[in-house]
Amino acid sequence: RGRARNDGGSATSDATMASKDALVKDVGALIERLQSLAQVVKDRSDACKQDLASSSPERTTSPADSEGALPSATEKKLRMVSRALHGRLKDTMDALTQLKRIADDALVLSPEDDASGDRLRALGAELALARENASDAGLLSEKIPEVPGRAEPDAANVHDTDGKRTRACTGEDPDPIDPDLERVLVANAVDVKSIRDVVARLRANERDVDARAALAREVRSLASPRNESNESTLAGMEPAAASDGSSSPTSGAAGALYSEDNFAYGSTPFATFWRVVQECPALSRAMARMAKVQQENYGIFMNQRGFQVWGSSSGWLVFYAALGCKVAGVGYELLRCHVDFANGVVMSMLNALAKPPVFIHGDVLEMADCDVMQFPPVVWLTSQCWDPSLKTAVAEKLTRQCEAGALVVDYGEGVGLGDRAEAWERVGTTTAPVSWNPAQTFHVYRRV
Asked: pTM of the prediction?
């Protein structure tokens, strides 16, 4: 009888896990559908804003009195459509947030937990309601308002014949390297096949249910809600004194937690990385110099700190530098699951990597170091969703540690703002697509 009970319990657990996988798949499909439609909505909303901005704000009642001004009726219609698109986009973002929470809640369910079956059924009901609400709100409709005065493709063409638009929005197209870029890379003796292989593995890890479950569990173990009363500090903690006497936030190891927003996941395509490097002469020269130094001084770990990624995730930018620029760098990441995966990729690609990069698990405020270099380093910050207090603490640390000539690549402008403005000069900006924004602006700063 005992064995029969165990077999029955195992069957129940297997059924629960199968149901979990099916639920996560359903949520993912709905997320992809909403994202693909949201991209069209965003494109048309941006077009409305552009057309409205081209109209003179000083326009008189006569269109002839203001060159390029929109007729009054057209402007009114543009504003009406713009408001409708903005409202739909906001509602879609709210729906996506709810669906992500449902997926995360499902991913962390364990077969050993007797309550998992009941919780899974409750999540299934939440998904059904979320789908119904999205449909009732028109978020799943392909009937998207067109931009007045512009020729638009039919809304039904949201999913075009080869699916390129959908893949671009959902990340299914791993990293398109167009023929022109490929020719440049080949001319620079870049191993394009290895880049594609790495990207394919990173994308597969994104979709792996077990990997997503491990990520969700670790994020929840480290994250806490934002302190609404004071966004300059992390919830439930006080700024701790750093070893040099400055004030900086601490992380989970010290009992303090970052907000969950801090761990939001996104990726930067290789083509975008390459463009950022090539369009900034100072950055391009620095990467070329590091490649030369590393080639001449193989095996010296200190040289690898010449290129650092703070918040390296599963290794995207570090692998790009290693394979595209022949610069082995160091990636610092707070989530151990990302570090373990990245190091696994390194071990499987030793033959393709002239000098393997290094991934370190830990908080950049405690472990990263910029003041021990033979030459000014390059630090790439993945700061898009970092807590405000973390951005400030990182900028202060970089300002203290970096010597003149050090470069910082940032997804925002935080490094060179406020009382640090005199310490940094912006030497480059590039606008290029990333997974969450088709026109992300990158800023390159140099320590003066």
From this structure: 0.65
The 10s digit of each residue's pLDDT in 140-189 is 888 888 888 775 444 434 443 333 333 333 334 546 788 899 999 999 89
Q: Are strands 358-361 and 247-248 parallel, antiparallel or unpaired?
A: unpaired
The three state secondary structure string of 15-81 is HHHHHHHHHHHHHHHHHHHHHHHHHHHHHHHHHHHHHHHCCCCCCCCCHHHCCCCCCHHHHHHHHHH
Degrees (nearest 5) of the Cα angle 294, 399, 239? 120
For residue 256, give the 3-state DSSP assignment: coil
- The encoded tokens of residue 109 equal 């369910």
Instruction: Compute CA 370 distance to the chain's CA centroid, rounded to the nearest angstrom.
Output: 24
Phi/psi at 13 (nearest 5 deg)? -65, -45
**Residue 173 burial (10 A CB sphere; 0-12, 13-18, 19+):** middle
The string of pLDDT tens digits covering residues 302-330 is 556 789 999 999 999 999 999 999 999 99
Average pLDDT over residues 337-359: 90
Q: What is the spatial distance between Cα 190 and Cα 355, in angstroms, rounded to a whole number?
A: 14
H or E, element range at 445 = strand 437-447
Residue found by looking up tokens 């402008």 in the block: 413
The pairing of strands 330-333 and 307-310 is parallel
